[in-house]
């Protein structure tokens, strides 16, 4: 028989001791229930350590969402699995992620800055209560903090660097659509610098986190002083986090360089096919050492020659285009020029190029943008008062993302704006003639490419009699030959064209004039050009095509030779139809193409 012992009497405690023990028990229970609540909502708190008042985050070392995007087709849903999955987990998810080169690679130190851009939804990230003119919610308002964690290598298990973004990186825009008449307020758009990366096509990883500082208060408990700081100090909780993404830094000046070039992408099924072809050329899992002598290294940059999203005054289309292109642009840095579909006049203010200028950060920005809206009289002459289809544009857009120059490996790239004046004496002309072209060092960057939207030469119907490219041709063609520009890249014509070296409508037998490469068959909804001006190609046409979509691949093997090929989307015939080796007209007297 078991004899029950009487309950032992609790030791005598003062009221203060009893209060302390009860408070401690309440604290334990609170932490247990809080942990369960956070576990169910996937909002696990970060570890944090105070360091002069700052909280430094310790992130997980492995990310289950890290996966290759190279082994799937353009229409396999797995291409977007890692892209969409975290949207269901967090309330403030970074979206519309894209990269760009920030600076040139420093020739002495070999370091380069990159720019990482992404958007945060105003409502989901606690900014809906603010007026359109307000800045990004700061720690004093919503307690949100942006953290970009990145490092060198394939997997995030090496040295972790952290950079906290603040309100100076945040921009937004308001736009009244000329199509719907409705006011659109953009997301909070972040442009964050990743400084001091090692150039030379090195692989880097990064992850974006949005964290919120929260304080836990238990007013019903009379906590001893030793417990109060636990609650009053607060903790950092994830409210948004991306998977781990990867990219390569620009090559050094002496290294072989591969670029993808395309125009008039849009957002159609064909656009995603082109996107996937370019993504395959990035080959992040491939080593930079070629398997055979003439094999190009992985593409490390994509250049878009205007007409990116075909938003045409409906800014929501910019949102859908950036999300559609994110699997490519989160990996491959982008540079672009404005096309006619980027003009977009605000229905009230008539301000132009606003979504394009705000969404992107092209390399080596010269100055803040200088824009002038066209007059009401001019807009009244346009079809449906739409600014996106002019033969001649009577406003201006200088600096900002309009025109700029930068170096990428062995290539010097000058980007121009077809839709601002480039007549002698204009701001853009003076910059091109007095600053950009004279600054090119062909010892560092032997290949010189110039990119703008409207081609100076065309064999296609549709844009062959427009005023803007006609004026541009008369203004800059002599400059292009004088400085031995190797190639001029354009879009606008929804087709493919490669010319022989041309000077004033004639083949330059010395090869010292530029070749013109039109790559406007990216996949947009307007489909291909109407046809050819002449059924028999002009004598200066090396190759033309207006019935398939694709992109151009430029591979600078060394300072004297480069390879061009057009990679088509179709699978009914060979993927590469046009391919040619060219000689550098700066170093070689005669061209072999």
From TrEMBL:
InterPro entries named among the record's database cross-references: Calcineurin-like_PHP, MPP_PAP, PAPs-like, PAPs_C
Domain (Purple acid phosphatase C-terminal) ranges: 513-572
GO terms, molecular function: acid phosphatase activity
Record has Signal as a keyword: yes
Signal peptide (UniProt feature, chain positions): 1-40
UniProt keyword annotations, A-Z: Signal
Name recorded for this polypeptide: Purple acid phosphatase
Organism field: Nitzschia inconspicua
């Amino acid at each position: 028989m078991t004899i029950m012992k009487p309950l032992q009497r609790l030791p005598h405690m003062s009221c203060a001791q009893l209060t302390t023990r009860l408070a401690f028990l309440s604290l334990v229970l609170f932490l247990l229930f809080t942990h369960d609540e956070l576990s169910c909502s996937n909002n696990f708190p970060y570890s944090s350590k105070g360091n002069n008042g700052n909280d430094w985050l310790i992130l997980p070392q492995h990310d289950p969402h890290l996966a290759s995007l190279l082994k799937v087709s353009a229409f396999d849903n797995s291409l977007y699995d890692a892209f969409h999955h975290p949207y269901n987990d967090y309330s403030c998810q970074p979206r519309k992620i894209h990269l760009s080169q920030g600076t040139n690679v420093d020739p002495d130190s070999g370091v380069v800055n990159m720019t990482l851009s992404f958007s945060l939804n105003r409502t989901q990230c606690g900014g809906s209560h603010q007026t359109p003119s307000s800045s990004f919610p700061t720690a004093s308002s919503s307690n949100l903090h942006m953290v970009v964690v990145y490092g060198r290598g394939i997997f995030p298990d090496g040295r972790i660097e952290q950079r906290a973004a603040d309100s100076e990186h945040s921009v937004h825009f308001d736009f009244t659509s000329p199509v719907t008449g409705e006011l659109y307020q953009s997301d909070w758009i972040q442009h964050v610098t990743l400084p001091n990366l090692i150039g030379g096509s090195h692989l880097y990883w990064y992850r974006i986190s949005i964290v919120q500082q929260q304080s836990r208060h238990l007013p019903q408990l009379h906590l001893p002083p030793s417990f109060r700081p636990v609650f009053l100090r607060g903790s950092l909780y994830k409210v948004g986090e991306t998977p781990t993404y990867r990219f390569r830094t620009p090559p050094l000046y002496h290294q072989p360089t591969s670029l993808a070039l395309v125009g008039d992408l849009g957002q159609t099924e064909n656009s995603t096919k082109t996107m996937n072809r370019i993504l395959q050329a990035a080959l992040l899992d491939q080593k930079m050492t070629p398997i055979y002598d003439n094999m190009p290294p992985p593409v490390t940059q994509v250049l878009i020659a205007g007409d990116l999203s075909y938003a045409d005054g409906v800014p929501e289309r910019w949102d859908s285009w950036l999300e559609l292109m994110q699997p490519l642009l989160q990996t491959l840095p982008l540079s672009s020029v404005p096309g006619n579909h980027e003009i977009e006049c605000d229905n009230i203010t008539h301000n132009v190029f606003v979504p394009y200028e705000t969404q992107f950060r092209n390399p080596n920005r010269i100055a803040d943008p200088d824009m002038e809206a066209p007059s009401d009289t001019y807009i009244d002459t346009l079809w449906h008062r739409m600014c996106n289809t002019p033969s001649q544009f009577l406003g201006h857009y200088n600096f900002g993302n309009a025109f700029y120059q930068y170096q990428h490996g062995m290539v010097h790239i000058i980007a121009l704006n077809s839709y601002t004046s480039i007549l002698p004496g204009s701001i853009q002309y003076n910059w091109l003639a007095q600053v950009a072209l004279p600054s090119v060092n062909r010892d560092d960057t032997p290949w010189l490419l110039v990119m703008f939207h409207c081609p100076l030469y065309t064999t296609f119907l549709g844009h062959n009699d427009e005023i803007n490219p006609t004026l541009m041709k008369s203004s800059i063609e002599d400059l292009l030959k004088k400085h031995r520009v190797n190639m001029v890249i354009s879009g606008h014509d929804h087709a493919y064209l490669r010319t022989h070296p041309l000077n004033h409508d004639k083949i330059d037998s010395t090869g010292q004039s530029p070749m013109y490469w039109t790559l406007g068959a990216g996949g947009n909804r307007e489909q291909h050009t109407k046809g050819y001006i002449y059924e028999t190609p002009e004598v200066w046409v090396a190759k033309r095509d207006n019935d398939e979509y694709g992109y151009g691949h430029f591979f600078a093997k060394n300072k004297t030779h480069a390879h061009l090929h057009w990679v088509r989307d179709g699978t009914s015939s060979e993927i590469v139809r046009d391919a040619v080796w060219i000689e550098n007209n700066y170093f070689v007297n005669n061209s072999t193409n």
